Amino acid sequence: MGRFDGKSVLISGAARGQGRAHAVAFAREGADVAIFDICAKLPSTSYVGTTREELDETARLCEAEGARAVVDVADVRDAAAVESFVERAAQELGKIDIVVANAGILHNGDIATMDPETFCETIDVNLIGVFNTIRPVLPGMIEREYGRVIATGSITSIRGFAHLGHYTAAKHGVAGLIKSIAREVGDYGVTANYIVPNTVNTTMLINDAAYAHISPQDPTAEAMGQKFAELNVISKPWIEPEDVSKVVLFAASDDARYTTGAMLSVDLGITI
């Protein structure tokens, strides 16, 4: 018996990285999954975009664990597209019990020289996309008086970081949004929490552009990792997607039924 037998989970940004890890972890614990991703590169990003093939591979991995998988390409910035996918997923799976708003992008840049399009793209994906993913799921949760809402925050949900003003603004917004949702739905048996990871070993953060930005004199993963490790209480450079998944599954489980509006950190101690 898995912790999530009979449950269904909706996950955005599931083609690879954290989203894939979460989907497979839920499937392994008995849940069916509804997964989507933009499957494209956005203009402000410097790393390779996700692909439909990667999204289909996530579905295959989930199905190998015995899960049903509903899959499609959708952009979290497109509220109508996300709502349409949610409706289809709820129809095919019966309901959506858990939503994980995971999709996000990252770009390094200074506010003084940043173009408005880059700033807005980050806000649109990392904050408005969270709203677009969660909003269409809430009415069903409220009606059934059960639900788990989880969003991917960041250590930038708590601290300010140079060269990440747009990203930090969005992630601060995620924290406020989740706290407000928690207050709105608490009496309906629905909880809302946000996860605060440190650097995670995914393409979004582990790539040549990041090496050059963080360690220009030695643009390698090893040199960047050393810089990151020096900042952390636990002297490791980053965590794995599966480390985050364990906390996501806790937040979605009955063990966390009285935890809501909370920041659940997986941050190697950097925020203390």
Task: Describe the structure using short key phrases.
272 residues; alpha/beta; Rossmann fold; seven-stranded parallel sheet; 9 helices; 14% strand; globular
Beta-strand share of residues: 5-15%
How many domains? The number is 1
Biggest sheet descriptor:
7 strands, parallel
CATH class term: Alpha Beta
- Overall helicity: 40-55%
Number of helices in the DSSP assignment: 9
Distance between the termini: 37 Å
Strand order of the largest sheet: 3-2-1-4-5-6-7
| CATH topological fold name | Rossmann fold
Q: Kindly report the average pLDDT value.
A: 97
CATH superfamily: NAD(P)-binding Rossmann-like Domain
Total strand segments? 7
Poorly predicted ranges: none
Computed over alpha carbons, the radius of gyration is 18 Å
Structural class: alpha/beta
Question: Which architecture name does CATH use?
Answer: 3-Layer(aba) Sandwich
N to C succession of SSEs: EHEHEHEHHEHEHHHE
Shape: globular
